[in-house]
Amino acid sequence: MLFQGVKITLINKSIKVNSKILYESIRIKNTNRIVYIRFNGHYYVAVVRSISNNNNYYVVHMSTNGRKVYCTCKYHLITGKPCKHIVAVINELERKGFLKTKALSINRTSRSLPKPPSS
After folding, report:
1. Where are the domains of the chain?
2. pLDDT per residue over 38-71, tens digit each?
3. How far apart are CA 99 and CA 11, in angstroms?
4. Residue 92, CA atoms < 13 Å, CB-side half-sphere
5. What does the alpha-carbon distance between residue 72 and residue 99 come to, in Å, rounded to a whole number?
6. In the 3-class helix/strand/coil scheme, how is the chain assigned residue by residue?
7. For residue 84, how far is the Cα from the chain centroid?
8. Are 30 and 40 in contact (CB under 8 A)?
9. pTM of the entire structure?
10. N or C: which end of the chain has fewer CB within 10 A?
């Protein structure tokens, strides 16, 4: 795997995200699955369409300082860990310049995209 993973810093705490989640977050972005991102006072609210089912949507809430992040997907609800939707939204917010601090850093050994995970 070319990408080693992603570190998300929340409240001075780094959380490592595996390369499968990184790969899926790139797919979300490249297939325009982020329906919209809105600023709602102290939070960004994003709606992300499911990759596997066009009728499913997930809502990501993220505080402007990056201290609180929440997604309505099953993975995040069960594990409490950042999911592909959260990583995709953070990446998009940074790309558009909405985040003042770098919340997402990608450690990579190559600039190439990772290969899809094997089933």
Report:
1. 3-105
2. 988 888 999 999 998 889 999 999 887 667 889 9
3. 15
4. 27
5. 22
6. CCEEEEEEEECCEEEEECHHHHHHHHHHHHCCCEEEEEEECCEEEEEEECCCCCCCEEEEEEECCCCCEEECCHHHHHHCCCCHHHHHHHHHHHHCCCCCCCCEEEEECCCCCCCCCCC
7. 5
8. no
9. 0.74
10. C
